[in-house]
Amino acid sequence: EILAATINAVTLIVIAVFIVIEAARRLQNPPEVATAGMLAISTLGLAVNIVVALYMLRGGDVRENVNMRGAYAHVLGDALGSVGAITAALLMMCFGWGWADAAASVLVAALIVKSGWGVLKESLNILMEGSPKGVCLDGLVAQIRGVDGVLSVHDLHVWSITSGANALTAHIVVSGELSVREAERILREISHEMEHLGITHTTLQLESSDNECADELICEVRSSDAGGHLGHHH
Predict the structure, then answer these.
(1) What backbone phi and psi angles, to 5 degrees, belong to 152?
(2) Does residue 220 carry a pLDDT above 60?
């Protein structure tokens, strides 16, 4: 899904580049344009794109699903192209402005790049396992620390698996005297709180406050040169 959205976004940007190149060529050597036919075909194309766009808005998740948003951007790009062609055809028919076609093409290309870049940036953020949009890490830490029995939190990571599916991993420091039932209660409460914040997949590791690594951000495991046993190095 995310790869498809990335390809859609890149395709939009490439199309926009070719539109600008073609517009520059038309400005240098304006061709003769059959404005009546151009107006008729553009109007028909706009009507079809409007129908498709409305269908996608009603039947698809174009807000949360980045792949659907990429496809929707494609449809909007086609619709904008039709609007530009209609405008250019009317200007050429009424005023004889031959440059209107190229100018409209450049404007449409700019709008296509804007929508395509937004989809590309979001899809690359997911592929690079970046923090989801709208998620505040400090707020997550405060929420977890607010659960009764939690002493501290470290090694917290949040990323998007795909559109609308965020994941979280964290190390939770608790008292070494907790029972298994109390530990399970803490895990359930944290997972429940994270679901309210839009994080659907949570992996938590409980650590005792007696563990000397609990408050360290980095804990390396190295092999001893003498005996070959494993030890901790900070």
Answers:
(1) -165, 170
(2) no
